[in-house]
Structures are given as C-alpha cells and as structure tokens.
Write a structure and sequence with these properties.
The protein has 19 helices and 12 strands. A hairpin with a 2-residue loop joins strand 5 (167-168) and strand 6 (171-172). The strands form 3 sheets. Strands 1, 2, 3, 4, 7 and 12 form a 6-stranded mixed β-sheet that branches. A 4-stranded mixed β-sheet has the order 9-10-8-11. Strands 5-6 form a two-stranded antiparallel ribbon. By secondary structure, the chain is an alpha/beta fold. The protein has 2 domains: 2-180 and 343-416, Periplasmic binding protein-like II (D-Maltodextrin-Binding Protein, domain 2, 3-Layer(aba) Sandwich), CATH 3.40.190.10; 182-341 and 422-474, D-Maltodextrin-Binding Protein, domain 2.
C-alpha cells in the first residue's frame, strides 16, 4: 500500500504541476479607484501578522506539523489563525509550514512519506480528494480522528455542498477549510456605456450572450465575456447547476468504476454556444486554469466567470465599478438552476510510524478550533473564501458584513439555494487534474476550428475514461 500511495502521490504532483495556474503578474502601478463596488474588508479584530522565520515551538508542548500551500497574502492569514490557536491554550502547538504552493507541498509530502516522516496535517486541493480517499492506511479519516479522541464532530454544522464533497456517506474524511465556488462578475461602468441595465445582470445564457455582444458592438469593452478555470466553471459547475451528470456513479461518489458522460446533448450545446460566441467576437478564450482572470480587472472583458476567491484581486486591481451575481443557466432545462459545487482545498490527517495518541489529540483540538463559527466567519471575511459553516455565515450576516460588502454573500447563497442532488454534490474522480488537461486540449482544438463540438466532447470523454480505468486498476 505504501508503494502504491507513493506512486499515486508522484503522479498527482506531476499532474498538478501541469495544470497549476501561472503566477499572476503584479500590476505596474496601482490603478485609481472609481466608485468601488465593495468596501475593503474591515474585520473587527484583525489577526496578528505571522512571523518569518517561524517561531520555535515552546518546550513541553505536543507539536504537530501542518504543511500548507497558500502563498501570500492568504498564507500569512492562515499562519496568523494558527498562531491564535497556539496562544489559546498551552498544551498543543501547530507548526504551520509553507511548502511553496500545492505542487511543492505535494513533492515535500512524497519525500517525507518515503522517510516515514509524513506531516501530521497536509492541505490538499479538492480534485485530489478521490486519490487521498483511496489511499487507505496512509490517511486517518476525520471521523476516525473524532471517535478516537472524543471529539464530538457534528458534520451538520457545515453547508451541504462542502460537507458532501469531503465525506463518504455521512462520515467526514477530511477537514473542510478553504472552499470557493465560481460566480459571475460584471463591469458596471461598461454596462452603462453599452446601454445595459447593471441592476438587471444576465440570468440566462441567452441574456449573457446578448449582453456580451452588445458590450463589444458598442465599443464599451474589447471583449464581452471570458472565464477562468474552464473545466471548473464551464463543465463541472455547469453540470451541477443544470442537474446533469458529469459522470456515472453520482460523479464517482459511489464507486471508482464511474464513467464520464459529459458528451450529452446539453454539454455539446454549451460548447457550441461558446464556439459561436468566439466566432462572433463576444467571447474570448483566455487560456487554461487562471490565465484569463486578468482580462476582467484590466477592463478588457466586461463579464467573467471566476472564483469567489478572485474577489480580492478584482477589488484591488479594477479601476471601475463592478458587481457579482449568480452563474447563468439555460432556462429551457427543467429544474435549473440548482446549487453549484466547490473548489479550494481541505486538510488531511496523515499516518506515520511512531505517531502518538497525544499528537492526534492535538490535531483534533486544532480542527475543533478552526471549525468554530466565529473563526470560520473571520476566515471568510479576511480571505474571501466561503463561510463553510452555517454559523459562520450567520455571524457574518449579523455583523452587517454583507451590507457593507454587497454580493459577498452570493457564493454562499448559490451553494445552498437547493438541496444537493447526486449531480450537484461534488466530484470524486481519480486523476481529475489529468482529465482537466484532456478537456483543455479537446476544447482548444474546437475553438481553433479543428473539430466540432461533438467531436471535442466525445474525444474528451473517451480519453478521460481511459484515465479513470488506469486509476481504478491502481487500487484494485
């Protein structure tokens, strides 16, 4: 099992490096601010600034290592929350160690696991969930940690879309932490210039296409519409909100023998819509992963589908008024729209030789701390990630945060607007990063006129299913 897990870790690291977003270039100068859509976050009690180098753990404390992959400024905020936990009691100490990003964190975990010195906690991106779950023995599920340490873990405090993603049945496997979901951002100034009503943003794909075309035809923007993380925003979440399967077996939740089915007529129709929009000049494909994000705050594109966690960058870099709203849908699809699904990462507990009961107790105490509603609320407000607990959302709402920051509550509302179905609970597909790359390749050929929308989707499904079968063989 150890050899198998090492092989999978190596493959996962290689795949993530291949699909990781390029670093975001810093703006050459700070743009002037014009009628900002939201006020800067002003938490009532700012977290202390994390120190560099890390402080030495106090003597006598039970110390556990937490390896994370969030860079500045999010990593600094994370370290500050860890420091607060360490100061809240005098028995346990969490040593938060930044490993240079998810890919670097993964590589470091491989080396440590080989040496029998895996970290106690590791942060893993959401598309690695299936792989981590399959690595029996290498990880300790959170529900087992809770039972063994006497922690009264209540999964129901988490919003369903988050809880379901990181659970097996009704048992939580990893600890939710930084979760996001895609939203639609639009340029209010450009809407007004184009004669569009910013108080009535597009709700359907027909309305979005019409608005995007008008933005370009009027000269309000060079590009009408774009999106970041193409498969996450236009395939995975598209399937969820339209309540159509991405794969069989409840998108892999019910077994590793799942098969991709995203070449349905609706999926093909959507890719064809994007191809038609690109041809008419109302849509610009901005590239893989997060490459297109810059097209919105720069003012080039008037509408973008981007992560709720992109809010901070858009607020910082835009010199125009902007707003956020729900993702669009095809209004002739019965039942649409329903809830979207999450992205981001969760925290996994790893086993290692010599690990003690007190060390696991320390992990449980840290998890209890970060799952407190007041901590969750502050994490949400300071970072832009979702409030992952109902209590965190309630506290934020009661504090008037959403009144001061219009639209900041919409990601939560989009995730919770319906009870998740088997098509909108999340994904659990092995080697999902590799499947995303395959979709990129096939879609790009379609955008370049090298194949039809149907051929692109059929090819992506065929190649993606081959990846799933290889993953299945690894664990059988």
């Amino acid at each position: 099992m150890k050899r198998t897990f090492l092989f999978v870790l190596i493959m996962l690291a290689v795949l993530f490096v291949a699909c990781a977003p390029a670093p975001t270039p810093a703006p050459t100068a700070a743009p002037p601010t014009k009628a900002p859509a939201v006020e800067p976050t002003k938490p009532a009690a700012p977290s202390p600034t994390a120190t560099t180098p890390r402080p030495t753990p106090p003597p006598g404390r039970v110390t556990v290592e937490f390896w994370f992959g969030l860079g500045k400024p999010l990593g600094d905020i994370l370290e500050a929350f860890v420091m607060e936990f360490n100061k809240s009691q005098d028995k346990y100490y969490v040593d938060a160690i930044y490993k240079g990003g998810y890919a670097d964190t993964m590589n470091a975990a491989i080396a440590a696991y080989r040496a029998g010195k895996a970290p106690h906690i590791v942060q893993m991106f959401e598309v690695g969930t299936a792989t981590m779950m399959a690595a029996k023995g290498a990880i300790k599920p959170v529900h087992e940690l809770a039972r063994e340490t006497g922690w009264n873990l209540d999964p129901n405090i988490y919003i369903p879309a988050v809880r379901g993603y990181y659970s097996e049945g009704d048992k939580m496997i990893s600890m939710p932490w930084n979760s996001s979901t895609p939203m639609m951002y639009y340029n209010v100034d450009a809407f007004k210039k184009a004669g569009l009503d910013p108080d009535k943003p597009p709700k359907t794909w027909a309305e979005l296409r019409a608005a995007a075309k008008k933005l370009v035809d009027s000269g309000a923007t060079k590009c009408g519409f774009t999106f970041e993380w193409p498969t996450w925003t236009q395939l995975e979440n598209f399937s969820a909100i339209h309540n159509v399967p991405l794969a069989t077996k409840a998108n892999g939740m019910l077994g590793m023998d799942a098969e991709l089915v995203f070449n349905s007529p609706l999926h093909v129709r959507h890719l064809q819509t994007l191809m038609d929009m690109a041809k008419e000049g109302s849509f610009k494909y901005g590239g893989r992963d997060g490459a297109a994000t810059v097209l919105f705050p720069s003012g080039e594109c008037g509408i973008i589908h981007a992560s709720s966690a992109a809010r901070a960058r858009i607020q910082r870099e835009s010199n125009f008024e902007w707003r956020v709203t729900f993702l669009p849908y095809y209004d002739d699809v019965p039942g649409a729209p329903i809830n979207s699904i999450i992205g981001g990462a969760s925290l996994w507990v790893m086993n290692s030789p010599g690990r003690t009961a007190e060390e696991f107790k320390a992990i449980a105490e840290f998890f209890k701390y970060i799952s407190k509603p007041e901590v969750d609320a502050r994490w949400h407000q300071e970072t832009g990630y979702l409030p992952i607990t109902h209590g965190g959302n309630d506290i934020t709402k009661a504090a008037g945060f959403y009144q001061k920051n219009p639209g900041a509550d919409l990601p939560y509302l989009q995730l919770t607007r319906t009870k998740p179905t088997e098509n909108s609970l999340g994904l659990r597909l092995g080697n999902m990063p590799q499947i995303r790359i395959i979709v990129y390749e096939e879609w790009e050929k379609a955008f370049q006129g090298q194949q039809t929308a149907k051929q692109a989707m059929d090819n992506a499904v065929k190649r993606g299913n081959e990846v799933l079968r290889e993953f299945e063989k690894t664990y059988k």
